[in-house]
Design a protein that fits this description.
The strands form 2 sheets. Strands 1-2-3-7-8-9-10-11 form an 8-stranded parallel beta sheet. A 3-stranded antiparallel beta sheet has the order 4-6-5, with no helix packed on it. It is an alpha/beta fold and 258 residues long. The protein has helices at 42-51, 71-74, 95-111, 134-147, 162-165, 193-209, 223-233, and strands at residues 15-18, 32-35, 54-60, 63-65, 78-82, 87-90, 115-119, 152-156, 171-175, 214-219, 239-243. It is 30% helix and 21% strand.
Length: 258
């Protein structure tokens, strides 16, 4: 097992992720904050930026949820459905898809966010549902970066693509390195150590080869599992967040800063 990812020390519990509405006074002192744009106005975002280092908005580059405000704009540009999340795979070969996503990003940045959390990048890897659209993804990332040279972009997973995407991003987030939520049984559990070790080697490559910050998001539903995961992560110099699978609030077993 890898005992560290980098020599530099970090504020370990310095990531906050929530897709529900949280009061701004509950989000203070984090290095990375990931939120849904629709829940916050410009004044709240301004306050959040004073209280935290990087405050970014969520967007999926691979899928659109049926409840998303832009679903009707893209419902004719989808390739299939992700039943786990009631979302639909986007066709990035369509000009309209690229235009809508670019406009959404501009809206978030104009509202005051520092950048974007780019979700579902894994979809475009070898075994992903959109593996044939890697070229389209990279074209979109290039377009987004050129339009927003100073924005802070966090890529979600997609390790296989980092050789190409590292030109356009500022950090990489990985979910479920230590935990393995089962959608079929709705069970929270630890991942097998041999699987975790594979992930840890990938994370080390990101920090050493690409010199990118690595963030972790893990999932737990009780204090015992939370503490167990926290102890494992504390062996690494890496920022993390531990929450419930829907990421809709601060869990009762508490991810709040102490």
């Amino acid at each position: 097992m890898i005992a560290y990812l980098s020599e530099s020390k970090v504020n370990k519990s310095s990531v906050f992720v929530c897709y529900g509405k949280i009061k701004t006074d509950q989000i203070k002192g984090y290095s990375y904050v990931i939120l849904e744009e629709k829940h916050y106005n410009k004044e709240e975002i301004r306050l959040l930026k004073k209280q935290n280092k990087h405050v970014v908005a969520y967007i999926s580059l691979g899928e659109v949820n049926s409840n998303a405000t832009h679903f009707n704009l893209l419902k004719d540009n989808i390739l299939g459905k992700n039943n786990n999340w009631n979302s639909h795979y986007l066709d990035l070969s369509k000009d309209k898809t690229v235009i809508v996503l670019s406009r959404l990003i501009k809206k978030c940045l104009d509202k005051g966010f520092d950048g974007m959390f780019l979700d579902n990048i894994d979809n475009f890897t070898t075994f992903g549902p959109q593996k044939n659209q890697k070229k389209e993804l990279l074209s979109l990332l290039k377009k987004i970066r050129q339009a927003n040279p100073d924005a802070f972009f966090i890529q979600n997973a997609g390790f296989e693509l980092i050789y190409d995407t590292s030109l356009y991003i500022n950090a990489v987030l990985f979910e479920s390195v230590f935990t393995n939520y089962q959608f079929s049984t709705k069970k929270y559990q630890l991942r097998e150590q041999k699987e975790t070790d594979i992930y840890l080697n990938k994370l080390k490559t990101v920090t050493e080869k690409y010199n990118l910050p690595v963030l972790l998001v893990e999932y737990a539903d009780n204090q015992e599992l939370y503490k167990n995961v926290q102890q494992k992560i504390n062996n690494l110099n890496v920022s993390y967040f531990i929450g419930s699978i829907d990421l809709q609030g601060i869990p009762s077993f508490s991810n709040s800063k102490k």
